[in-house]
Amino acid sequence: MGVTRELSEWILKASYSDLPDETVEFTKGLLLKTLAAMAVGSRELLGKKIIKYVSGMGGLPEVGVVGAGFRTSAEVGAFANGVLAHAPEMEDVYFLPNNEAVGTCWMFPAVLTLGEKLLSSGKEIIEASVVSFEVAARLNLAGPGMGIPRGINTATYFGAPATAAAAARLLGLTVEQTQNALSIAATQTAGLADQTGYNAHTLEAGHSCRAGVLSAFLAEAGADGLPDIVAEGRRLFSAVAPEGAIDLTKVTNGLGKPPFHVHNIEFKKYSGCGYIHPSVDTLTTLMKEQNVRYEDVERVETEVVPWQASYCDRPFPDTFGGARFSFQFMMAEVLLRGRIDYSTFQSETKLFDPKFREAEGKVKPLPREDLPQGYKGARVTVVKKDGQRLVKDMEAYLGHPANPLTIEQIREVCRSFFDVVLREEQRNRVEELTLNMEKLADIRELMNILTFFNNPAV
Questions:
Q1: pLDDT mean across residues, the chain
Q2: In this structure, what are the phi and psi dihedrals at residue 151, rounded to the nearest 5 degrees?
Q3: Residue 419: CB partners within 8 Å, gap ≥ 6?
């Protein structure tokens, strides 16, 4: 049996009953965060542009576009909701040992969108979410981590077939159709590593969600692709790994057995790149513990893995897209305000404010070649103007798999974003429906609230 067929068989047969309680609970928390990201994403500048763009596309009114107040086709809705989920850079991410990443926004918005069209039950949404993330993680793990060095964002590259896996499952395709869906999606993969900080990177999540849904629809209609696309040779991995360098056993070994890869996700508390979170939390803690005042700070150093610095050493960014990938911007906010919240990325005058730029100039990421490639802790040093050096190490920040948030903590993080756009009664109902999703016959009420939250009658 080929790897693609074995994977496709599992995609279809995986069952809610196979999922441990902790996997169900954490996945519901991740879905709540995805919905919060889409809600505030609809108020981001790019989110507004996407809503305006898709509003003129027409199509059957099958699914809602979050925050837009209208419905569109499932394919267009998957694209729009994928972009909205990524717009505030809030997606939760598994940073793999091979230096690649898998994020929830490349699959979960499509699961919710297609699930609305198909009247999928809450259990089916949870199943499809876990399956899609498992497929994305396993495909990424099978490669040697060559995506970023080759300039490819593998989150998007493998997100399209992973979304196709979830869509095939929700549509009830056959094994052969599921193989075709994966293969068709593989032809539509895209994503460039150097686009981070620009709208093009944010759009990649929408492309992944749309491509996966479209691929499953095409397979259902009878379109086919190379059947064994997950294999050695010039197939799925040819663009991201040298021939012979992949390990297909990582796709199939232990497939369907816990622990599932969603538990490797690092839960973002802030709407910025996850690579920066350890440094932010470490600096925040150090300043509180040592009662550090900004006026006393000469400079701040954060010791990071070289590839993290290559992504996020961005002094004086002039857009919020760049600021969300900037050690300097996010740590300057902590120096000046002591925290990061939704307002951090809202006032563009901050980007050019002389005092803020002064604070950014105090921050220096220090690449360290001796750190393990999978290192996700931080060592932050604050050098005071009197010469005193304050040092803080943090091995696992709150939200890391080694220091996970409770469901109540996840709820509080999501509330800080929901409260920007939802009325209290809307927020409470969204929380209730999502955190009890396994009891839902379908998710129409949930998606209806989020689509029309600006309507006083909803």
A1: 93
A2: 85, 15
A3: 427
Give per-residue pLDDT as tens, 60-78.
999 999 999 999 999 999 9
Q: CB–CB of 438/126 below 8 Å?
A: yes
- How many Cβ atoms from other residues are within 10 Å of residue 370's Cβ? 7
Give the pairing of strands 297-304 and 101-103: unpaired
Q: What residue ranges define each of the domains in the chain, with the CATH number in brackets?
A: 3-264 (1.10.4100.10), 274-394 (3.30.1330.120)
Q: What is the pLDDT of residues 113-170, one digit of tens each?
A: 999 999 999 999 999 999 999 999 999 999 877 676 678 888 888 999 999 999 999 9
Q: What is the pLDDT of residues 182-203, one digit of tens each?
A: 999 999 987 888 888 899 999 9
Measured distance between the N- and C-terminal CA atoms of the chain, rounded to whole angstroms: 51
401 Cβ contact partners less than 8 Å away, ≥ 6 residues apart: 263, 264, 265, 266
- Residue in 108, 138, 406 with CA at minimum distance from that of residue 257: 138
Contact at 8 Å (CB) between 103 and 141?
no
d(CA 250, CA 326) in angstroms, rounded, equals 33
pLDDT tens per residue across span 212-236: 999 999 999 999 999 999 998 879 9
Local confidence band at 35 (pLDDT 50, 70, 90 cut-offs): very high
297-304 and 378-384: which strand pairing? antiparallel
Give the list of residues 6+ apart from residue 238 with CB closer than 8 angstroms, or none.
Answer: none
Tokens 């067929």 correspond to what residue? 5
CA distance 104 to 65: 18
For residues 162 and 237, the answer to whether their CB atoms sit within 8 Å is no
Least-confidence region, from 8-22, 160-174, 225-239, 286-300: 225-239
Of 221, 339, 204, nearest in space to 271 by CA: 339
Mean pLDDT calculated for residue range 377-393:
95
Taken in order 230, 232, 234, 239, is the CA torsion positive or negative?
A: positive
